[in-house]
Each structure stands twice: as C-alpha cells, then as structure tokens.
Queue: 3 jobs
Job 1
Amino acid sequence: MRWLLAKDVRILARSRLLLVVLVVYPAAIALLIGFAISRTPSRPRVAIVDETPPGATVAIGSKVVSVHRYAEQLFSQVQAVDVRTRAQALAKVNAAEVLAAVVIPPDIVAKATSGTTQGRLEVVYNGNALEQSLVQAQLSSALAQANLGFSQQIQQAASSAISQLLHGGNASELGAPGYLIGLDQIPPLLARVISHQPRGPDRAALERVAAFADFAATNLNVSRSVLASVGQPVSVSTRLLHGRRTPLDTFAVVVAVSISEMFVCLLLAAGGLALEREEHTLARLVRGLVARETVLAEKAFVAAGCAFAVAFALLAGVGAFVALDWARVWLWLIALAASSLAFGALGVAIGALAREVRASSLLAFLLSLPLAFLALVPSGAVASGLSDVISAISYVFPFKSALQALDAAVNRSAPAIGGSLVHLAVLVLAFGALARVSLRSAD
Amino acid sequence: MSVPAAAEETSAGTLSVRGVSKRYGELVALRDVSFELCAGEVLAIVGPNGAGKTTLLSIVAGTQSATAGSVHANGAAEASRSARAQRAAVGWAPQQAALYSRLTVAENLRLFARLERVADPERAVERMLDQTELRARADDRVGRLSGGNRQRVNVALALLADPPVLALDEPSASLDPAQRERLWEFIKGLARSGHSVIFSSHNMAEVQRHADRVIVLDRGEQLFDGAPAELMRTAGDGDRSEIGQRDLESALVAFVARSEREQGIGE
C-alpha cells in the first residue's frame, strides 16, 4: 500500500490547483467564519421621526417619564437616522437609504395616559424578503424592550404612589396638603379613639370605619405585587437536560469544519478511485498486484488524511477568533480522524458506483449539500413523519454523527462522543463493503 | 465445456487455453475456445467487432475470469500454482494504455516494478527504458506523450517482470505507420528471444506480416486456428472469386461470411 500512497501523494502534489485549493480553502473559510462570528452584527439603518413636542413627559403619580428617553431606548437597537417629517422618512425608505422608518406620533403621550387607548407607533419598511425579515425582527425586539422599560418605569411610579397612600408621608406631589397619614396607620389610631368611646351608635360607626381601613390597607399592599406581575407576567427559567450549553458561535465553527471536511474527503476519495478507472490503471492494479480492498483502503486513507489536515487547520484557524478549549485537542483529533475515515469510506463507495471522475464529483457534491442540510434541521421544526425520514437518512450517512462527535469534542455537548464514534466505525465498515461490492466488476 | 484445472494435463507450451467460455447473463461472449501457444510464437486473434477478442485476451491476462474452462501460462498445470503466479506469467498491455498520466514514464515503470515485486526495480526500469527506446522521454509526464509513445510505455509495463507470455490488445491501433513498424520490430525481437505473443488486431496486413498463427473468432465461436496462409487457402476453397484478391483481409471477410452462411446466421 505504501507505493500506492506515495504515488497518490505525488499526483496530488502535482495537481497544483487542487493543492492550492486544499491550502487556501481552510485558511479562507477560517478567516471568513472568524470575522463573521467575532464581529457584532451591523444594526439596520432606520429613520426616526419624533413628532412629540420637545420635553413631552408622561406623569404617573409623583413620577415623570420622559418620552424622549423612551425613544432613546428604541434608537439604541438600530442605527437611527433622525428626520424631521414623516414625508422625509418615507422618501428615505423609498430611496432605500434606510430599511425602515419609525414615526412617533404627537398624540402618543395623550393616548398613553388616557387609560382607555394605547400609544401607537407607525413602522414603514421596504426591501427584499430577507431585509424585511431582518427589520421586522430587530424592530419588534427593540419595541418590546423599550415597552418593557417604559412599563417598568410606570409600574415603579404607581408602586411609589401606592406606598405613599399606604404608609403616609409628604404627598404634596400627589396633590395632598402637607404630611398625609398612611392607610395602615388609621386602624390603630381609630382603635385608641374607639376605646374611649361609650357603647352606642357613634362607636359602632367608628368600628365599621376602622374595619374598612384595615381591609383597604391589606389589599392595597397586595396590589403592589400585582402591579409587578402585570408589568412582566411571565419570567423564564431555563435548564439544559444533557451536556453543556453550546455557544452558537462555536457550534457554527463545528458545522463549518464538518461541512468542509465532508466536501474535501468525498471529492478526493470518489475522484481518486474514479480516476484509477478512467486511466484504466485499476484493472492493471487488481490483476494480482494489489487486492481491491487495499486499493479502496488506500484511497480512503489518502482522502481522509487530506480532509483531516484541512479540518484541523480550519479549526485551529478559527480558534484565533473564538475561544476554544485546547485542553480537549486530543478529543478533536479523535473526532476528526473517525469522521474523516467515515467520509473516506463513503467517498470510495461513490467513486466505485459512479466510475467516472466527473460523475463521481457531481454525485459527491449533490450528496453533500442535502446531507448537511438534513442533519441541521431541528427535530421539532418539521412534521413528525418527515422528521423520522430525515433522522433515518441522517443515520445512514456519516455527516450527522461526524457533527455530533466534533460538537461533543469541542463543546462538550450531548450526546457523548463515544456513541458517535461507534456509529462512524459502523458506517466505515458499511460503506467499505458497499464500495467493495461495487468494485467487484472493475476491469 | 468446462474442465477443472486440477484434473487436466497441460501439454508443452507457454500458454494453454482449454474449453474457455464466458457468459454475461444471457449473452455468450466466448464458447469453448481452446488453443496452445508455443515459446517464441506470435498468435493473432482476429474477427469482427464483438467477436470476443478482448474478452479472450482479458481472460488470458487474468483481468476477467472464465465462466468455464482454464488458462495455464508457461506450462503450469499444478493446482498449487497461485493465481498471482499465473498472472505474473502473462504480461498484459490493454487496448487503452493503463498509465498514470500525471506521473513520468520512469515513475510509472518504477511504481509497477515495485508492485510486481521485481527483484531489482531500478534495473528493470533501466532495461525497459532502453528496450523501448524511451530513455529520452523518461522524465516526461505520460499525459504529454504522443499516442505511440504511450503505447510503448503500455507495452513496457507489460514486460517489466519479464513474463514468458505477452498479451497485447490491439497494440498498434493508435499508431502511425512508422511507430507501428518500430513497435513490431520490438515485439518480433521479444518473440525471437523466446517470449510468446498473443495479440488482437483489426489490421490484417500486420497480422499477415507478423503473426505465425491466426485464430478467427466470430460471435464467441472459434472458427479457425492455423497459419495466415492456411486461412487464405481455407477461405479460397469455398469461393474462388474472392480468393482471387489474395490478401488476408479479403480471406477473413470471405471466411467469416461463409461460416455464418453455413450456420444459417444473417440469412
């Protein structure tokens, strides 16, 4: 096998274009991924028209909430372009200078404080489906955050007013004259007065007033916590059942590395074997010089070796941009080696079936894209029957297991790496057997 | 007819083909072909397209197995003789040159010398470069060679292990007249040194000039086995008007046509 290996390495080294692609490809992809995930996403340009009068505020109890502050919170989520009128904003949207325009109408304060209607913002957007989706998502998020902040300020103001009514104090801001007694101070005060009153209708009336004051103080106290829960009725607590939470950026790295590894390995293994047939050398080799199994293993090893090197270089390159746990590098190597061999076995099976270099390259390419796509479809994102079909397809090809093995090695995610390695080993044998059967009639 | 290899006896000769048949499903590519090839003999396999020439040479070379019958090279009949040794006794040059186009001539020779486990690969390479007059092109990539030179490398690979039998499938098909002449000088030299040569060809002129014997195949049937002159005589026996042309090509056409008429084919 060593002479065949040496021959293939020499042929690879002489294919300058292929060699350049094998060196440049991982470097370029690593740089692209690195820059993509290490830089914050750009904010969409949005024209903002604030038609409210300068210094407009919403007063709740003793607190005053600035409309301008609300707008600032909204602007922080987008790249704001200030314009004076609605017409100017629409012109900018039409001219594609901005992706959208947000109009804060002059009556927003009146409506927000009316207690009967909501303040309403106007959003106008343009662009293609992707841009529309981006703007909608970012503006919805920005509006939700701004509304939440606004709601919290209103809730704090209301809570402060209730506290003053309950416990008393200087309530001149509420329109009360000077120091005001608190509702919770009335029952004990009345109790002392009642104790000096003779039994009769006046005492009975005072006792009814005291009972009401006690009831009102207790319930007003409860209303503060009710207000808090109305402001943010549902909070979320998350818990991961298995493994460690995988940061999206390192998962993206694992996906990119696995796809690159699969492409390189399938194309080299399938093309290498098909080339032996195209040059008619396979028949000479298997004519007692080399066993067919040896030819298949050699092609798979060469392709796996190249794919392994490319994938590791890619991973190491991206490591310059994303924090990876280098203490687990031996697990990366195991995962990459196992997946490279599985891709190599699949590649030689393709090469044995397709027989021609062009056909095998096309088949490898056509197989790679849907395999990667299907493996990345979340199980709950499609109907259960379709999900089962996708799972079955992903199970009989190595991409998903390769992805899971590398994800477990790099990110400590579930499932554990052992199961994926066993699955990859089984696939190596299965595709090796398929390649051997397909090569039976090689001559 | 199938004869078990272990049970038969092989007569003297460098190649013994006995009762070889080959079927591809319902299609019979070869039917009960038998012949012997002596040391130094040059044997031509001729016949129309689809006659089974390449199939027969592939079976002799060991790249295909026979459905029935046996092939023994260099007088080997022992059951203990391995398939690898049988194949090593036959040097094979396929119709389309089986070479690595990105390797040089010398690298191709060196690789196959090592895979053939030749005792001294470097010496074998040097010998073949001299014999095939390819020394000046030794460092040229095969992909940049002319068709004639590629074919010479193809034949050189077949001779690396110095096999006693050489199987050549249409060796001069892609060569110009001068290249063809040089190749035949080379092959005849091998025959003079004791190698047996079996080759297929559509070129009846070169068969007439260079072959000691001719086997005619048609639709997998072995119609004739004898000297070229005998084929011309046999063909002339049945049709005096055609034999008047006195060339092997006309004789072959007449002979095959008559055989098909006798078998009721094509009527």
Job 2
Amino acid sequence: MLRTHRLTPFLYLAPALALLLFVFAYPLFAIFDFSLRRIRGATGPFIGPENYRQIFKDDVFREAVSHNAQLLLAVPILVAISLLLAVLLYERARGWQIYRNILFVPYILAVPVVGVVLSNMLQRNGVTNALLRAAGLDFLALDWIGSARRALWTVMGVIIWREMGFGIVLFLARLLSLNEEIQDAAKIDGAGWWQRLLYVTLPQMRGIVEFYTVVSIITMLAWVFSYVYVMTRGGPGNATQIMELYIYNFAFRNSLPGIASAVAVILFVITLALIVPLFRFRARTEMEDLG
Amino acid sequence: MTTAVPVPPRKPPRRLNWTAVAKHGVLLFATVLVLLPGYFMIITAFKTQAGYSLNKFDFPHPFFTGNFVTAMRGGRFFLWFGNSIILAVGAVLLSTLVSALAAYAFARMNFAGRNLMLAINTALMVIPPVVMLIPLFLLLTRIDLVSTYPGATLVYAGLLTPFSIYLLTNFFRTVPHEIVESALMDGASTLQILALILLPLSGPALVTLIVVNTLWVWNDLLIALVLLPQDNMRTLMVGITVFGSRYNNDVPVAMAGMLLASLPMILLYLFGQRYFIRGLVAGALKG
C-alpha cells in the first residue's frame, strides 16, 4: 500500500464517484420517489402506492410477469446445452478450438442483427419453413412468430441460440483449469465416460454452474428487451409482452413514468435479491481457482 | 477419430469409436445450427427478390450486389456507423480514464470505507440499465442533453464504469509490490506511478477492457433508443432495427443491411478471437 495523504485516495476516486452518482445513485433513489407520484414532465403530486395498485390490476402487467417467468425455463436448457458442448470440447475433439470459436460467434453478433435475420428466417413463408417442407416435414412448418401461442417460445429459442455461446466458453474456461490428474486417475481406475462426467467433472464445476445459473436468471428477467423489441415489439397482441418492454412503453410511449417507475422498482428489488446468491457463488468459483 | 488424450489400453476400441462419432455428431450439429443464420444472411444478401422467392437456400445466381446499393442509399448507414463509433470511443475512453484513477486508489491506497465501496461497485455491475433509464431521461431532458453526444456518452461511460473499476482494481493488485517500491525510491510521485508503471504494465487488461466495453456500447439498443430519439442521432443498432422493419418484405435488402452492420464486429472477431473470449469470460468472473 502506498503512503498517501489522508485525502489523496478520494481525489483519485472523485471523477468515477461523480459519474456513478449521476448514472446509478441518483436514478436508483429517484425511481422510488417517481413510483409514488403522478409524474407530468419532470415531477408531479405525491399519490402514495397508487401506481403499484394500478399495475397489479393491469392484466398486461400480469402477462408481462408471467412471460418473464416462462422465459426462466430457458435457464436449465441453457445450462444443459452449454455444459454438454463445453464437456465435449474439453475432451479435445479434433478441431475443438475451431468449434469453440464458431460456437461463440452468436454472442458477438448484436441482438438487432440476430433478431432481424432470425425473424426473417422464421416467418410463415421464410427459409425455415421452406427447409422443413423440403424435408417432408410439412406439419412442422408453422407460423413461428405470427402465432400468439408460439411467439414467446420462438423468442426463447432465439435467446438460447445467442446466449449459449457465453455459457460454453465460461464452462470450458473452468474445465481447462481443472487438474487433469484426477481425470487420468479415474480413467486408470476404469471409470467410463459417464461415470467420469457425473462423479469427477461435474462436482468440480458446481460453483461456476451455480454462478451461470444466477446470471442467466437475471438475463431472462431484465436483459431481454432487445430480442423482444426487434422480433415482435411484444406482439402479436401481448403474447410476448415482458417487464422491460412494459417499462419502456409506459415511460416513453404512454408518457406515464410513474407507472413505469413502479415496475422499475420491482425489477430493481428482484435484481438486488439475486445479487446475494450471485456473490456467494462467485466467491466459491474463485475458491475453485479459475485460471 | 482420435482424441489428443492418450486412451487407456483396457478400453475396447469399438466402443470408443462409437462415442467419438456421437460426440462429433453433436458438435457438428450445434455448429451447423450456429452457422445456418449467417449462411442464410450472406446468400440472401446477394440475391434478387425474384431469385429469393424462387429458391431460398441455393447459392445466388446471378450474383446480385444491388441490395447493398439500396441499403446504403442516402448514406444513412454511414451516419449510423459514425454515431456508434463516436459514442463507443467517447464512452470507453472516459470510462477507462476515470476507472483507472479509481482502481488505482482501490488497489494501492488505504482509506476508510474501501471494502464497502468495492462491494457496492461490484453489485452495480448486475443492475439492469432499464431500471435507471426513466430518471436519466428526465434529467437529461431538463438539462437539454437528450439526443446529444455528451448526454449519451456520459450515461454509457457511467454504465461501463463498475466493470472497468472491478477489472482494473484486480489487475493493479497483481503488479508486484517491489516494482512500485523501487519507483518510489527513485522519487516517482503518486500519479507518476500510475501513469508510468501501472498502466504500461496493464496492456492485456486494458485490451480486454476496451474490447468488452466497446462491444457493450456498440450492441446496446435500449439506451440509444431512449436517449437519442432524433433521426440523425441514431446509432447503428437503432438504425438497423428500423431498417429491418422497413424492409420486412424485401428480405434480400434486409439481409444486405444486416451483413453490412455485422461486418465490423465479425472482422474484429476474426483477428482477435482470443481477446473477445478471454475478455468476456474475465468480465463475468474476475480480472
């Protein structure tokens, strides 16, 4: 540690602190205040919990919440697919680095690009259905985006398609840091592929899997706006309405920032609740000594 | 098929072959699934409308480049590119600068409340921007910074800063104490230690930081949509979202636009895969 004047550290912290106060601290206080007011322009009269009462009465909000909840089903799928592919890559299948670099590509692509390309492919007369028909699977050539029953599942599939690259690379980094001697010892003892996976590899992955699970939960609840906005704008009807879009619509389309702030508060509280397990799992991962 | 890991001799070779085939099968299937949209985007971008409706998955013949002309007509694409570049460069530079100063204090100085502040900083990394957006928009409206570069740059820089502080603090801590000590003996000032010792040694961490942060600003849609509503301030992401719905019925032009928009990141990724992969993993865990 450097020996400095008592105030020197704060001098170095000041610019970052100013920026963080502006972008995080002020807004995080303000949403609580806004959520209790009827905002017109910059502020408005205090109305107590009226905004909260409004949103809980609103069917569209309830649909949004249930859709976010449905998107949580993508979490176990993401974990399973990423784990499987990471383990396969870890076994150094020939060309594993090329596979890894390709499988990571969707995560580099911007969501609007992914959204526009995949919505075009998944249109009723798009290339996906053309392929299915060519393969004689006409009964599978469905209206993937235009149908209220299927649209959210389609969006979920696109989210999984793009986000899995991150899971694969994260798990692979962990696997590559494992002690190979344990693997070799298990092999010499005659453990088969499944036995090694279940009893040797996976137990050592616990921390990182838990960490990725919580990160994915946060993603599904609060970071999927761009997918929905680009692919469906919440439609057809409200079939793909989600909390983020609800905030966006109420704050910036319907000019009701008070209502939107109440939802923002709820989202903030959910995220805060998830930060605790996230920190615990991250600490455990660090103890597992990721290289 | 062989694996690089030596195979224990008691395993029957036949069984190994089958599992190897199955494993490669799964990997190949996933790879095809990942590459298919890219393939579709590229072949469609070079087709005429008529060619596209005739056959959706063959190679383009005739090879048609007119879609790119249509997509770039009026120079909108270049405007969007320019806006995205200005914002990304500005926000990443500003955030790196203030974060380097703060990380230096966190990593190398003692002060009251240091650990608490670091913990809060780490927590901020997870807060979704949509939560802060309403007050930020109202505040920027009041001080006339909506649809301006400074307004959006400040917000982006602020959003990048928790991660930047986190990564740089972890990195500065790994610089050996002896190097700093000997610089002090030579009469270096506190600021000189940061500028002449720590930062030059942080090359890899800085590259990681710049890659991750640039990608973040470049790919953001929500903040740009809200804070830069004016037409000529659109970023590439907002631009192509509008573009995609406008050419919803002209798929080849839409694909040409998407190809143009993703070209910079794909090229960067081809040349610096290591930095992208390492950077984004480090971003999730530690520096």
Job 3
Amino acid sequence: MTLRSPLSRVLGSGSAKEGTDHWWMQRVTAVALLILGPWFLFSFAGLDNYSQADIAAWVAAPANAVMLLLASITLAWHSMLGIQIIIEDYIHGPGLKVVSLILNKFAHVFLSVAAVLAILKMALGGSL
Amino acid sequence: MIKEGRPLSPHLTIYRWPITMMLSILHRISGVALAVGFVVFVVWLEAIAFDALSYASFSAVMQSSVGQLALFGWLFCFFFHLANGIRHLIWDSGRLFEKRQADLSAWFVLITAVVLSGGYWVMV
C-alpha cells in the first residue's frame, strides 16, 4: 500500500516537490557555460587595447552585451547551485545551514543584478 | 552502549590518493575559486561602468604579482572546471565509468587544463 496520491505519482517529484530540478538545471547551465565561458575568454582576447574606454566599447557592442548578460546570469545561477550543494554537504547545524543557504541565494542574485546593471549602463549609454 | 574498539570504516586519511579522488575534490575547489572570481568579475564590470572604484586602481591590483597569480589561478580553475565538467557530463550519460577510463580521462582533463590555461596566458 502506498500513501502517495495518484497525482503525486504522476508528477513524480517526491517529497521535495522539486524532483530533479536542481540536478537538471546544474547541467543545463553547465552546457550553456561551455559556450558562454570560452566565448568570453576568446572574444576578450581579441581586444587590441585594455583601457577602460576600450573595454566599455567592447561591452557596448550589442552582440557582446547580449552574450555578457547571458554569461553573467547563467554563471550566477550555476554558481548558486554549486555552492548550495557544498553548503548542504558540509554545514550541518540547522540554523547555520539555513542561514548560509539563504545568504547564498541573496549573494548570487545580488551579484547577477549588479552585473546586469553595469552591462546595461555600458550598452545603453548615459541614460542610466 | 558504545563498545570500544569496534571496527570503523576506513577514513579519508588512510587512502593513497588516486588521481580520480584528487580531481573530484579539485572540481569543488575550482568551483569555489571561480565563485570568488565571479565576485571580482562583477567588481571589474562595476569599475568599468560606474567608476565607483576607479578602474585604474582595479587594474593596478590585477597587474601586481598577487593579482597576476590570482588571474592565472582563475584561468586554470576555469579550464579545469570546464574540462572536468565535460567529463562529468559524459558520466551522466553512463559512459567512461570503468576504472581505467576514469583514470585516463582524469589525466586527459588535467593535461588539457594545463595546456589551455598556459596557452591562453602566453597568447593574451
């Protein structure tokens, strides 16, 4: 006899309600970063000059801005998932664990928003 | 009711570290290092966009020997995490689980990471 409802069986998500979401998104963001990471390194390597104005102009090119936005958000996401696992593995006190998990989320959302604002500022010019 | 002297399962410290074990923990360590690198990356973006912290002082720090060492460390961690990440994705597909395959792919990942990060450092 099972105590699980038919709906729960069909959704297949178990007691955590999220099922394989964490695991799967870690892989999806990893695959995205396989493209975005090397793109960043090799596109950046192609710059002639690394003055503040030159880098800002490189960021401002629409294709670069789009790729950088994707890279920043995906990297923050992937990093958040990874650090979460490490916290869950090594931090055992229930209070400290929950606090660390929440701070991990806050820090990564903060970093990605800050990165997005900086990129948009450079891409859209002085209007921000 | 704990009896003294009962056998324990072997702890981490008594194993001779095989390459697969080393790469496993290195994957985590490089991941954490890259997370720290992401913070510096965001500071770099803010410095360029807003001059909150001047770009000049940021690049001065990065051009110091400590900054250069950190940059190379992040570059190595990036290529290592990338190459070993591909190894993990292959494992996810159920392949390369044999001991010999795991050992060989570990060496392949390590050499790839050294060559790519060294090559990039020299070229750029």
